[in-house]
Amino acid sequence: MEKKQIEVIPYLAFKGNCEEAIKTYIAAFGGEICYISRWSEDTFDVTPNQIGKVMHVEFTLGNTHIAAGDTFDGKGVNTDMKLMVHMDSMEEAANTVSILAEGGTVLSPLRPHPEPDDSGCGSVTRDRFGYTWIITCPNPDKQQSK
């Protein structure tokens, strides 16, 4: 089997103060926001309080790539570590999810992200060891023909 170059990305969840936390971390360690999207009136999925909050952000602290978002699931702040890996294709992502789901649980099936992140797809799986993995890939329906 060919070894792939992958990057495992820690994913942090916040209760509405994601942007403030990220700015604090960047001020403390140096870094930058690489990408940020926000919940909108069309995409919020739990409460209107999500509107304008961070749906997804990717940022760097030094050489470390980190991702995060605001969550509104009604639970307390969840400091459990999630791991995110970007895959090159839907097939590769589906295979990875399948392997992680053996003895585990697919919490969210592989599907396109909501706008404005719909150029990608993602799945969330808790593996049999208790770790949660966010597996992403490009959305084949949004890729331009080459």
Which tags fit this structure?
146 residues, 2 helices, Signal recognition particle alu RNA binding heterodimer, srp9/1, 2 domains, alpha+beta, 8-stranded mixed sheet
Note down, in words, how this protein is organized.
It is a single chain. This protein is α+β, with helices and mostly antiparallel strands. The protein folds into two domains: 1-75, Signal recognition particle alu RNA binding heterodimer, srp9/1, CATH 3.30.720.100; 80-146, Signal recognition particle alu RNA binding heterodimer, srp9/1 (2-Layer Sandwich), CATH 3.30.720.110. It is 16% helix and 38% strand. The chain is built from two helices and eight strands, in the order βαββββαβββ. It has helices at 18-29, 90-101, and strands at 8-14, 32-38, 54-61, 64-70, 82-86, 105-112, 120-126, 132-138. The protein has an eight-stranded mixed β-sheet, covered by helices on one side. It is globular and about 40 Å long. It starts with 7 loop residues before the first strand and ends in an 8-residue tail after the last strand. The model has no long low-confidence stretch (mean pLDDT 87).
The Rg value, from CA coordinates, equals 16 Å
Task: Tell me the number of helical segments per DSSP (H or I, 4 or more residues long).
Answer: 2
The assigned structural class equals: alpha+beta
Task: Give me the count of strands.
Answer: 8
Order of helices and strands: EHEEEEHEEE
The chain-level mean pLDDT equals 87
State the share of residues found in helices, binned by percent. 10-25%
What is the top-level CATH class of the largest domain?
Answer: Alpha Beta
Query: Kindly, what is the distance between the CA atoms of the first and last residues, rounded to a whole number of angstroms?
Result: 28 Å
Tally of structural domains = 2
Q: Which percent range describes the beta-strand content?
A: 35-45%
Strand order of the largest sheet: 2-3-4-1-5-8-7-6
As for the CATH topology of the largest domain, it is Signal recognition particle alu RNA binding heterodimer, srp9/1
Low-confidence stretches: none
CATH architecture of the largest domain: 2-Layer Sandwich
Give the overall silhouette: globular
The main sheet comes to: 8 strands, mixed
